[in-house]
C-alpha cells in the first residue's frame, strides 16, 4: 500500500539523492539555468478516487516472467533507470494479468513483463531525453503516464523461456511497433494478435502505436504517483 500523504512530498531515498532525481534535485536542475524556467510539477488527476493498492507481480504470481529492461542499460535510454528489477501494478491489474497468464499457458506460452508501474520522475526523464519527433512513443509528463498510475503494462510472450518474436523489438520507436504494421513476419504478427486477444478478453486496452503496451480499462480511477520503485511497499 502507498500512503496517500506521500504523493505531494516524498521523502528522498538515498539512491534518488545520489541520482539527483529527487524532488530537490529536479528543482535544482530545472531552476538552475539562467532563465529560471518554472519546474514542472507532477500533475494530479481529480478524477482519480481509488486508493492505490499496489502488488508486486513476482510475488503475486510467480508464473509471470520478468525482464525489466529499465533496470538494465539495455533500453532506449541506454542507461539504468530503475535501481532494481521490479514490476508493480494495482491489484485488479495483477489479477487480470494472472488470468491472461493462465490463457497463455493453455496455448503453450507465458507472459514476459518488461515494465509496469513507473514513477513520474522517470516519465519526465524519458520525455526530456526524447527528441520531439519521437515523442509519440513517450508520455508527456505534464499529463502523466498510465504507467505512473500502476495501470499499464509493457509485455510480450515467451515459450519455454525463449522470447517470442514480435513485429518489432520492445521500445522500437518506429512505425514497425504500430499494431497496424503488416510488414512483419506472419508468425510475429500472429503472436502479437494472440497476446492482444487474451489481454482484451481480461479487460486491457491495447495502445495503437506500441504492440507491447496495454492499459487497464479503469486506469483513470488511480492517481499519478512518483514513489520510487524501491520505496513502494507492495503487498
Ligand atoms: Zn508502456
Strand content: 5-15%
Largest sheet: 6 strands, mixed
> Total number of helical segments?
6
The geometry reads as: globular
Low-confidence stretches: 1-34
What is the average of the pLDDT values? 87
**Over the alpha carbons, how many angstroms does the gyration radius reach?**
18 Å
- Rounded to the nearest angstrom, the distance between the terminal CA atoms is 7 Å
- Element order: H for helix, E for strand: HHEHEEHEHEEHEE
What is the helix content?
A: 25-40%
- In total, the number of domains comes to 1
3D structure, described in words:
The longest helix has 16 residues, at 91-106. The protein has a single domain, classed as Muramoyl-pentapeptide Carboxypeptidase, domain 2 (2-Layer Sandwich), CATH 3.30.1380.10. The strands form two sheets. Strands 2, 4, 5, 6, 7 and 8 form a six-stranded mixed sheet that branches. Strands 1-3 form a two-stranded antiparallel ribbon. The radius of gyration is 18 Å and the shape is globular. With 235 residues, it is of the alpha+beta class. Mean pLDDT is 87; it is low at 1-34. 26% of the residues lie in helices and 13% in strands. The protein is built from six helices and eight strands. The structure holds zinc ion. Residues 115, 147, 152, 154, 213 line the site of zinc ion.
Please render the helix and strand layout as text.
Layout lengths: L13 H6 L3 H9 L22 E3 H4 L4 E2 L21 E3 H16 L3 E6 L4 H10 L22 E8 L2 E2 L22 H16 L2 E3 L6 E4 L19
Parallel strand pairs: 2-4
Antiparallel strand pairs: 1-3, 4-5, 5-6, 5-8, 7-8
Helix pairs in contact: 4-6
Amino acid at each position: 500500500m502507498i500512503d496517500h500523504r506521500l504523493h505531494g512530498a516524498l521523502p528522498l531515498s538515498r539512491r534518488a539523492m545520489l541520482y539527483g532525481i529527487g524532488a530537490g534535485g529536479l528543482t535544482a536542475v530545472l531552476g538552475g539555468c539562467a532563465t529560471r524556467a518554472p519546474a514542472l510539477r507532477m500533475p494530479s488527476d481529480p478524477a482519480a478516487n481509488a486508493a492505490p493498492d499496489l502488488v508486486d507481480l513476482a510475488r503475486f504470481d510467480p508464473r509471470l516472467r520478468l525482464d525489466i529492461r529499465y533496470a538494465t542499460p539495455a533500453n532506449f535510454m541506454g542507461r539504468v533507470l530503475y535501481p532494481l528489477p521490479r514490476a508493480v501494478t494495482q491489484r485488479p491489474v495483477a489479477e487480470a494479468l494472472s488470468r491472461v497468464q493462465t490463457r497463455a499457458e493453455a496455448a503453450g506460452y507465458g507472459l514476459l513483463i518488461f515494465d509496469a508501474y513507473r514513477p513520474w520522475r522517470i516519465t519526465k526523464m524519458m520525455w526530456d531525453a526524447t527528441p520531439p519527433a519521437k515523442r509519440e512513443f513517450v508520455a508527456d509528463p505534464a499529463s502523466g503516464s498510465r504507467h505512473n498510475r500502476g495501470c499499464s503494462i509493457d509485455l510480450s510472450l515467451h515459450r519455454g523461456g525463449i522470447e517470442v518474436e514480435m513485429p518489432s523489438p520492445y521500445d522500437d520507436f518506429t512505425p514497425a511497433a504500430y499494431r497496424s504494421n503488416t510488414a512483419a513476419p506472419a508468425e510475429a504478427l500472429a503472436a502479437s494478435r494472440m497476446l492482444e486477444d487474451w489481454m482484451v478478453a481480461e479487460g486491457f486496452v491495447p495502445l495503437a502505436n506500441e504492440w507491447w503496451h496495454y492499459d487497464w480499462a479503469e486506469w483513470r480511477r488511480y492517481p499519478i504517483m512518483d514513489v520510487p520503485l524501491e520505496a513502494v511497499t507492495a503487498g
